[in-house]
């Protein structure tokens, strides 16, 4: 990872953080990422999403991690969804793994994922799950030790409206495994 990049958990969300997260989300959706949003990807949609995510984080339902450069600009993010049904207190979901196109292939995704995995383990989570429609993300997850479960055809839509498959992964966490 380049010098000056920091991975941290966001615990306070001001307008600067919401705007930085919105910039990353907009860039990813405009770049074709299937992450729950359709084109056109407006700043209002992104701002609303991150404002709600910040409220959820404040309630302890999720943890949000960011990769920032030395100026504090947010280059990437990942979420650990903690709020699970009562029969799954040991499970967490990885969601919205996003890295701005200008900062890809620098190790930010792996560092964000490692931070989320360690936080999950520290919180008593021993099973993590995620899904992705991205081949690049699939390669990252496999390199990070995630196990492939399978493909679900026509699971969602790409931002342009085309159907896309999703690929499901899981990882069992044990002390020292992240």
Please tell me about this protein's structure.
- The chain is an alpha+beta fold and 178 residues long.
- It has 4 helices and 7 strands.
- It has a 7-stranded mixed sheet with strand order 1-2-3-4-5-7-6, sandwiched between helices.
- The mean pLDDT is 97.
List keywords for this structure.
alpha+beta, 31% helix, globular, 178 residues, single chain, 4 helices
Strand content: 25-35%
Instruction: Tell me about the largest β-sheet.
Output: 7 strands, mixed
Q: Identify the strand order in the major beta sheet.
A: 1-2-3-4-5-7-6
Q: Please write the string of helix (H) and strand (E) elements.
A: EHHEEEHEHEE
Number of alpha- plus pi-helical segments: 4
Global shape: globular
Class by helix and strand content?
alpha+beta
* Radius of gyration computed on alpha carbons: 15 Å
Percentage of residues in helical conformation: 25-40%
Low-confidence stretches: none
Mean pLDDT across the residues is 97
């Amino acid at each position: 990872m380049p010098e000056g990049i920091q991975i941290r958990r966001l615990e306070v969300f001001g307008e600067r953080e919401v705007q930085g997260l919105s910039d990353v989300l907009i860039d990813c959706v405009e770049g074709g990422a299937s992450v729950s949003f359709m084109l056109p990807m407006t700043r209002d949609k992104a701002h609303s999403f991150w404002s709600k995510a910040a409220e959820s984080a404040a309630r302890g339902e999720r943890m949000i991690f960011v990769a920032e450069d030395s100026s504090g600009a947010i280059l990437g993010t990942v979420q650990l969804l903690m709020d699970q049904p009562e029969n799954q207190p040991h499970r967490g979901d990885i969601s919205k793994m996003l890295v701005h196109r200008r900062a890809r292939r620098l190790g930010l995704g792996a560092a964000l994922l490692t931070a989320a995995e360690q936080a999950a383990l520290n919180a008593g989570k021993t099973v993590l799950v995620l899904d992705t429609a991205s081949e690049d993300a699939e390669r990252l997850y496999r390199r990070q030790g995630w196990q492939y479960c399978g493909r679900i055809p026509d699971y969602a839509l790409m931002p342009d409206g085309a159907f896309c498959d999703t690929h499901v992964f899981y990882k069992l966490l044990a002390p020292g495994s992240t």
